[in-house]
Amino acid sequence: MAKALELPAPSERGSNREGSWRWLMTLGVLTMLSAAIGGGFGLVMVSGIEKRVEEKYKAANEKTETASPYTGNLAIKKLAPVVTNLAGSESDWVRVEASIVYKRGDDQNADVMAGETRQDILAYIRTMSLAQIQGPSGLLHLREDLNERVRLRSNGVIQELVLETLVVQ
Predict the structure, then answer these.
(1) CA distances in angstroms from 42 to 32, 35, 36, 52, 90, listed in the order given
(2) Cell membrane: is it a keyword of this entry (predicted)?
(3) Domain that holds residue 115
């Protein structure tokens, strides 16, 4: 005997479709809810970032006065250019133009200080090689060394040596 195919009852078929619709409706509601929460979170983040940017912009625009280290009885004197060759090389030449910032006083002669400083710069640069003054770190070390030598030689009268130009050929 052959078995007859049994079709589901009409009531079962309707509840199956109803379950699918419920599933799709739940999925749609959850999607809408997550989109709303994500959009709200995004708006909160954007407004917070805008406030921070405005605060930084306002802080940058406000002029803050910093105290200058060059106050009081200070003067500046330009030194004559120093031209010399480097140690161990007859073909590498250096030209340095600089100024000194010094404390004015009755007992100091600015021209004498400038001459002694120039002579000290010349003697120091003659001991250096080209590799020692190459690049930004070499220039920084040269500047720091010259400033230290000038302060020591002048017993604190000269505040700083300002390098204006440094040309190596």
Answers:
(1) 15, 10, 10, 16, 68
(2) yes
(3) 74-168
The answer, yes or no, to whether residue 11 has pLDDT greater than 60, is: no
Asked whether residue 58 falls in the same domain as residue 95, the answer is no
Q: Looking at the domain assignment, is residue 6 inside a domain?
A: no
Does the pLDDT value for residue 85 go beyond 80? yes
Give the pair of three-digit tokens for residue 77: 């004197």
| Shared domain check, 37 and 111 | no
Amino acid at 131: A
Give the count of beta carbons closer than 10 Å to the beta carbon of residue 154. Answer: 19
**pLDDT tens by residue, 44-82:** 999 999 999 888 888 877 766 666 666 778 888 999 999
Helix axes 110-125, 135-154, angle to 10 degrees: 140
Helix (H) or strand (E) holding 37: helix 10-61
- In angstroms, the CA 11 to CA 128 distance is 101
Domain assignment present for residue 136? The answer is yes
